[in-house]
Amino acid sequence: MRILIYGAARSGTTALYAAIHRARPDLIGHFEPRSLAVPAADPRPLLAKALAGAGYPLHRAFMPAFDRRILLTRHPYDRLVSSLLYVPYNGHSFSDDRRANRFLELIRRKRLAPASIPMMALLEDFARPAGLDPIEFFTVPTAGVLAASRSEPVCFPYRYEDFVAGRTEPLSDYLGFPVESEVRVSRSLQRVHRRGGAGDWRNWFLPADAEALRPHFADYAAAFGYDLALDRMPEPAIEAAEAELFVLRNLNRYRRRNFLPKLEPGRNRIGEEGVSFDIAVRAIRRPGEEKGARARLWRLVREGRLVAPSLLQLGLSNGLVARLAAPAKGAVRRLLYRRGS
Asked: What parts of the chain have a pLDDT lower than 50?
């Protein structure tokens, strides 16, 4: 058996992948391969998970290699909230302490008084400093899922809301074996788990937010049966562990991974050089952009903000630093980066 899970990031693909793997541990796992060409060429029984969105093409040519194809959907507003709170794990200029502290403070204020800050304001605060479009960033993945639902080969549509509610019978029938709905992922992927439920967007959205975003998600909602109307909860409730603490935890995971100083709320030690660092990291990881990344790194060196550039570049490009110096990350971080005041 060869199974493919396809869906947008933050739509429960990791939880479903873990659940199916628990039911069928004999399947070879391919977790977010760079291309479906890799698992498609693997002749063994396997379970693959691929993401829709920018940088993740639909891979129509490889989908026929799977005899079971699950198209996982989630309410677009729930996915938007979850995605917004997770983005610091991937950099996006949050290596500037001033920017990170401002965003954390906005999230904290939103938690304490949900009606005081529109969701659209949070989207703008995240996207503009990173040079991103606050709408396009969140609509591209859902558009990819919608395109997959309208193309050949046919996929089995399954809603994340049904999974977390324990309604797994249709999925089990499709796969031919029982799948349990417990939301549980491996320790190495605990960073992705925030809440594990449905309907949380009503705690975050204001009526104006729902109306402003409706045109951008209307086709997706109609295709998969989601209601975009906002029936406000009497008393919106947001937990710190699902808001600013979740953001801070994943932001610092990104920094540890790249040997950057830990963010301590309220302190500003990294400025605009952190944003340049993020750009360099992302460029190095994209084939063909290493030359531009090298230029950015050297500019930071000339400005006196980075030291040991060759070691840093080598570490970012192939992970050698992480493998060799994992026991002494603190010392390596101090060697590679000159902390601000």
From this structure: 307-341
